[in-house]
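ESCALATION

Customer reports they have been waiting on this structure for their group meeting. Please prioritize. Original submission:
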Amino acid sequence: MKTYQIHLLRHSITDGNINGQYIGSKDIPLNDIGKEHILQLDEKFIYPGAAAYFTSPMQRCKQTLAMIYPNASPIEIDALRECDFGEFEGLTAEELKDSRDFAEWLASDGQSAPPSGESGVAFGRRVCQAFEKIVEALMSTGIPSAVIVTHGGVIMTLLAQYGLPEAGMSDWAMDPGCGYSIRIHPQLWSSAKKVEVYQTIPLPKEEDDYESEYFFVDAPEAKQEQEEEQP
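Update from on-call: job pushed to the front of the queue and completed.
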């Protein structure tokens, strides 16, 4: 039976990443470090191509996609935006440490909404609905593969919901400019709404590229094996 591939990529580095700010709906671009980071990754590693390209409408995602896939004509999906942090946008945990609203939001494990922001439940519902529409579109049209450039929170939410092996959101963390490839088996998707997570991306050009200066987050089971091997 035909399968479908989707490559999920997190955007590259912004000032918000460096400063530790809550950046969701704030539309900030890549900084010079982020642009150089992508250029170096693209030179040393391989980003898989696809038949279709999708992106969050945020500058940081569109810029990342354009640098990696300059000939692509991506479709912008508004629902692939990061969570809206409301009044916490642009602020750091240190700046918010005395805020009662911030303490209550943290205590809810992000499931409640920041003031004027979006709850974790609403965010999860939004991105999952968008993802399911993309999967169904691929299968209905026969398009075999897609690249989605979006945000770390979006990718972690999707893999925690649909990914096999099953793991929590934090287990699916990834560095900027990196991500995961998933394989959709139509029968498994129809019966269980699950996808196979089969590799991290970008891919090394040669085996010894695994020794590079760049850190790649392994799939959860590989992480556990590494931790068990450490003294």
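Sent to customer with the following note: The longest helix spans residues 120-141.
Escalation resolved.
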